[in-house]
Automatic annotation (TrEMBL):
It holds the Pfam family RNase_PH. Phosphate binds at residues 86, 124-126. Its EC number is 2.7.7.56. Homohexameric ring arranged as a trimer of dimers. GO terms for biological process: rRNA 3'-end processing; rRNA catabolic process; tRNA processing. The lineage of its organism: Bacteria, Pseudomonadati, Pseudomonadota, Alphaproteobacteria, Hyphomonadales. It catalyses: tRNA(n+1) + phosphate = tRNA(n) + a ribonucleoside 5'-diphosphate. The keyword tRNA-binding applies. This is Ribonuclease PH. It comes from the Bacteria. PROSITE patterns: RIBONUCLEASE_PH. Keywords: Nucleotidyltransferase, RNA-binding, rRNA processing, Transferase, tRNA processing, tRNA-binding.
Amino acid sequence: MRPSGRAPDQLRDVTLEIGVSRYAEGSCLARFGQTHVLCTASVEQGVPGWLKGQGRGWVTGEYGMLPRATHTRGRREAAQGKQSGRTQEIQRLIGRSLRSVVDLKILGDRTITLDCDVIQADGGTRTAAITGAWVALARACKYLVEEKVIKETPVTGQVAAISCGVFDGTPILDIDYAEDSSAEVDANFILAGDGRMIELQATGEKRPFSDEEFAELMRLAKLGCGQLFDKQRAAVG
């Protein structure tokens, strides 16, 4: 029995609420149970120096946790003068994941920054961030088309992400903190809307895992992401 009472293949209650930021070109509040991540997409003219003159745009991600997103207050990274290795890893993951489904030539000489701020954390913040960031990105690009800034959307497909793991000997979908903190195996799956893989992260936290266990985790991830893709399409409209 999972601590949450969910079935092994059951997502938490997931909502993707759009239009939560008045000023951002695209925004989404992604709620995966008690994990809440505010994702905004900001469009700016120009690209990083190393991309100038190439006729391509850029999509990048930034990630952060509010001080009281967890049980105890954490210090703001700005107050410490540097980002943690975990923060840098996650924001690079967000950028890589979203760039995989964007035609940067169509975007043109523009940068879209996806800011993912964790308001409340209960496991799976990076996967919630990626799933919500895609919605914010798609909404921002839809806005650019509607405003006739670009002729067509540069978004070529969907991206969603979900965590899976082995808890008490059973492969499970969408792990929360209570499960994550004692999971035998922990994995994150970033998938494209057509079922292809973008990035996989899998770790034997307490023991090695078998081919059969990994295959079941993959099955669960595809099942979960399929449901997330439906929710993304409904949110974008």
